[in-house]
Amino acid sequence: MIIYDAENQVLGRLCSVIAKRLLNGEKIAVVNCEKAVLAGRPRSTTDKYLHKYSRGDAIKGPFFPKQPELILRRTVRGMLPWDRTRGRNAYKNLKVYVGIPSELQGKNFEKTAFNASRLKCSYITLGDVSLALGVKKRW
Fold first, then answer.
1. Domain tally for the chain?
2. Cβ burial, residue 95 (10 Å; 0-12/13-18/19+)
3. DSSP one-letter string for 44-86
4. I need a labelling partner for 73 at 20 to 30 A (CA). Which of 21, 26, 81, 105 fits?
């Protein structure tokens, strides 16, 4: 099992690496998902996610998550061939955690190459986006 630490990692770049490895048949766990970073102006980013969450019907959908771990899973799902069994089976091999669970403490974590400290623009964390969507803080 490969364990990624999402702290200070750009969300889209991290998810594209994860999606590619999932399609290769690997099992992946992501920890500290609430500390993943979304590049861009914080106000426009939260407005974009608020629009995604509030659009549609409460019964028929489309349904978009508020919790940071579910937003990261949904982002990875968008990068997989969801309409094929290969993509759905790959998606089942992904585990995402808020913080670091006790069974994964003390293990080696991988980081992707693109760190948020290299960004030249403003950014917001996934946890802050979730708080703007109305989630109670659990981390």
1. 1
2. middle
3. HHHHHHHHHHHSSBTTTB-----SHHHHHHHHHHHTS-TTSHH
4. 105
